[in-house]
Amino acid sequence: MPFLDWVNKAQAQRSTADVPYHLLQFQSAHGDPQSENLLIQGDNLLALKALLPFYRGRVKCIYADPPFNTEQAFPDYDDKLEHSQWLTMLFPALQLQRDLLASDGTLFIHIDDNELGYLLAIADEVMNRKNRVAIVTFKQGAATGHKSINPGMVSTTNFMVVYAKNKASWRPNRLFTGRERDKRYGQFLVNPDAPCSQWRITTLSAAFCAVNGHKKLSDLKKELGPLVLEERLNEFVIAHASQVIQSVRPDYDAVSEAAQKLIDKSIAEPESILVLERDGYSTMYFRGGQRLIFYSGKLKEIDGVMVAGEPLTTLWDDLLSNNLHKEGGVEFPKSKKPEALLKRIFELTTRPNDLVLDAYLGSGTTAAVAHKMGRQYIGIERGEHAVTKCLPRLNGVVSGDQNGVSQSIGWQGGGGFRFHKLGEPVFDAEGGIHAAVRFGALAAYLWHFETGNPARQTFDSPLLGVQEGTAYVLLYNGILGDRRPAGGNVLTANVLAHLDSVFPHTGPRVIYGETTRLGEARLREAGITFKQIPYDIKAR
After folding, report:
1. Of 21, 102, 397, 475, most Cβ neighbours within 10 A?
2. Cα(44)–Cα(407) distance, rounded to whole angstroms?
3. 358 three-class SS
4. In 13-170, at which residue ranges do the beta strands (DSSP E only) sit?
5. What DSSP element (H or E) covers 275?
6. Is 102 in a helix, a strand, or coil?
7. Which of 106-115, 155-164, 422-431, 480-489 has the lowest mean pLDDT?
8. Residue 450 three-state SS
9. Is residue 124 a contact partner of residue 173, using CB atoms and an 8 Å limit?
10. Rounded CA gap, 257 and 276, in Å?
11. Can you give the C-alpha Rg of the chain in angstroms?
């Protein structure tokens, strides 16, 4: 597969390894203090790296809305970078987001046509082109206002490039979208309770007019107006969907032998309605060589309402950004995404309690929708927007905000989230462990370094865990009480005896500490690989 090259690509490729690990500093709890939802203020790349030891391979869905690089400066952020700068910024962020994704997770990258080509090239490289699922075209606006003045074509769309972490494991949910009434269904079954041999079929127009005082359709159009008439007709069709019919010519070669015989018989008896009942499948009706299909087969429940639906396609033109300025109670001109967009993404790729992530949180839409839909979430915003926009918006959600998707999903408030800021790096300028690092934080990093797994357990003893027969032990920050010289980080004979007694293990062990007073022969005899803090950690 060909790869895109640019100035500083080598720097971008090694950025994820060079980015230092940072602590996350708790600031405040909002709503339920036990909630695991996170709002993080800090640099996107640093925050993503800080999450790796705890969330690697755990995120079910990531929505990434990076700067589109439109060469404009907006009130809330600067969207003007040279192409190579933009690529160098995005490449390592994609790598870290890939590592955070679960094996059956999904990545959505929102972009417009300015950088779409470049994005495809680098995302195919990071995510593997075979894992690209789709390119969704999203209708963002309409050809009105100042956009319609200039000659040429008016841009009303942007795009979402969709990747699975592993396409072989990808299992999206089946979704439907509402569509206008299918006018090909123009017949109406008058007496559905009668035996099918006695069915009487008229036109849809005649049936509709009959329930409206037997007025002519043209008179109803004048009386109601074309828009109201179509609305009333649509309501009539939905209410009587099991009586609204379309005659279609079946694919004779594709149906069963039993269906073929019935088709032949119906041609010979054109006035008769013939029935084919099938185990596990819908009943088939034939008349005059054609199959009668009912409008009820098209109905789907969407947001609690029965509408004519069709399977979700890659053209999302039904989520217009009307009244977007009201959503969330915060201003974010030209950049806020509609809550309905995130709702669709989560319905397609997640289930309740799944973890979702947005590293370019902006005005907080992703976190707000995730909260309302019962998904766990992590939102990262680098600037003051985290405090001025995201924080008040999420507080509003906890209090029962009724904008956006709230009414369609019955949101009434509740839940909570924790606000963190990006703290100190794990290692200080001299390469030592920063004084702010506590045992649990260092233990989580070491567990992740050694095993590649996220730290899901609570670290409250020197034994961090056992992975593939190897035990991992950390002597740090007073974890052994007074069984330790000079602060308790040294592996001595007494400390080893204590470990053997309290945490017996017959296989190999990796022990981290400041130093050891045991010789190499003793370490080999005990099956211990000793690693010195901080040097052996820094080297990794």
Report:
1. 397
2. 32
3. strand
4. 22-31, 38-41, 59-64, 72-73, 78-79, 101-111, 132-139, 157-164
5. strand 274-276
6. strand
7. 480-489
8. helix
9. no
10. 11
11. 31
